[in-house]
Amino acid sequence: MAGVRGEKLLTASDLAALCEVDLKTIHNWVDRGRIAHFRTPGRHLRFRAADVAEFLRAWGYSVPRELARASAKSGLVVGSKDTLAHVTRALGDMMPLRDVKHPYDALVLAGSDPPDVFIVDAKAAAADVDVAHWMEALERACRDARFVVLSDEATGLPPFATRVGRTDAQGLRTLLVPEPVAPAVAAPGQVAAAANANEPAAAAQEELPPRAAGGSSR
């Protein structure tokens, strides 16, 4: 796995500080495939912000706001200025947003600089294109992208699209901005066992959140 120029990368020390464990524990998790990583030409460990945020959420840690912003996926809003304002209010600064007013412009960007998420005002797009066929073309060009349609009608949308009400700001935020997960609290016996293993562990399971790992001060 290679890093992408311009993206935020974290070191093993950064991750150790976030998880309140020592470097040996981080290397142990890496060796066991607990977290996605890559190495620099000098063999130093590096972690993408998005992978670290996913790791923290999966294992019961809260995700610092700065890290959540750095790891946020990019969004393209297709619709009017009012649509953009609505999406911006719903998502705040948790997702970098671009916007286009005409659906054909989204097709151009899909080929040259595709976003991670398309957020489409179905009513606005329908004035210029057949929304279902247009979105199918976008999906063929951006197989890894997510499609969210702002619409009060549940019919006429492709199966890969997720519908949210046109004015449902909370629904849109819930869908696209994961809330921080409260840290899991480990029993003292689990902490002791994990301290000996120096990896995510618990008495009855092979893998449990690293929150229970040794070296934690909580």
Average pLDDT, rounded to a whole number, is: 80
Strands of the largest sheet, in order across it? 5-4-6-7-8
> Percent range for helical residues?
40-55%
**Model regions low in confidence, pLDDT < 50 over at least 5 residues:** 1-6, 180-209, 212-218
Which structural class should the secondary elements be placed in? alpha/beta
How many strands, which pairing sense, and closed or not: the largest β-sheet? 5 strands, parallel
Q: Strand portion, in percent?
A: 5-15%
Question: What features would you describe in this structure?
Answer:
Helices cover 40% and strands 14% of the residues. The chain contains ten helices and eight strands. The longest helix is centred in the middle third of the chain and has 11 residues, at 81-91. Strand 4, helix 5 and strand 5 form a beta-alpha-beta unit. Helix 1 (12-19) packs across helix 2 (23-31) and helix 6 (103-112) runs parallel beside helix 8 (131-141). The chain has helices spanning 12-19, 23-31, 49-58, 65-70, 81-91, 103-112, 122-126, 131-141, 169-176, 188-197, and strands spanning 9-10, 38-39, 45-48, 75-78, 97-100, 117-121, 146-150, 161-164. The model is unreliable at 1-6, 180-209 and 212-218 (pLDDT under 50). The chain is an alpha/beta fold. The strands form two sheets. It has a five-stranded parallel β-sheet. A three-stranded antiparallel β-sheet has the order 1-3-2.
